[in-house]
Amino acid sequence: MTWTTERVDLLKKLWSDGLSASQIAGELGGVTRNAVIGKVHRLGLSGRAKAPAPQQKPRRPVSKPASGLSGGSSAHSYSRGGGSAPQTHGATALKMETSPAPAPAPKEQPVAELVPMAKKATILQLTERTCKWPIGDPSTEDFYFCGNPSDPSVPYCAYHCRIAYQPATDRKRRAAG
Fold first, then answer.
1. Which of 28, 54, 62, 71 would you label with 34, given CA atoms 20 to 30 Å apart?
2. pLDDT at 112
3. Which residue windows does the record flag with biased composition (Low complexity) (predicted)?
């Protein structure tokens, strides 16, 4: 395919009208989208009109009925409000709960179960059976390791394992919330 003067002029016109490279290739025929892009760059055509955006339908505001179900003849209400009228979910006509689910009550555990007392081990006291969880700032004198008993296959006690080894889903949920 050769770029004749007529085809180049048509390319320039279509490009300035805001057509995409694919649309121009379709109009010209016998040329690919990439060939159109290459020719546009070689010609130095940069600025062009924006392609007309597809018209979006304006959204209708959702009106709430003044008093629940009007006349009682309707099986369900289509309002999105949080009133007492039944609401639909998708194509089903099930009444959805309008009150939020209560937050789960925090489990009350004795402080000893939440944070076990550390043995305050120094680095010289650590073995394969002691928890190596660092506590404090290593540059200060009051820095120590947990030192509680641990399984030889993991470096931490049971409490610090729960902190160190969290499922990815729990970490993502906490980061998002």
1. 54
2. 46
3. 63-79
Return left, alpha or beta for 91; rule: phi > 0 is left, psi -120 to 50 is alpha, else beta. Answer: alpha
As a whole number of angstroms, the distance between CA 72 and CA 102 comes to: 31
For the chain, strand residue ranges (E) read 134-135, 144-145
Residue keyed to tokens 């339908």: 57
Specify the amino acid at residue 125.
Answer: Q
Nearest to 6, CA basis, from 37, 34, 29: 29
Give every CB contact of residue 52 below 8 A, 6+ residues apart in sequence: 18
The four Cα atoms 32, 35, 37, 42 give a dihedral, to 10 degrees, of: -160
In Å, what is the CA distance from 24 to each residue of 2, 9, 29, 32, 40? 15, 12, 8, 9, 11
Distance CA 92, CA 123 (A): 63
pLDDT in the model for residue 32: 93
Compute the distance between CA of residue 4 and CA of residue 141 in angstroms, rounded to an integer: 82
Pick left, alpha or beta for residue 147 (phi over 0 → left; psi -120 to 50 → alpha; otherwise beta): left
166 contact partners, CB below 8 Å, separation of at least 6: none
Hey, is 133 helix, strand or coil?
A: coil
Domain boundaries, the chain: 5-43, 111-176
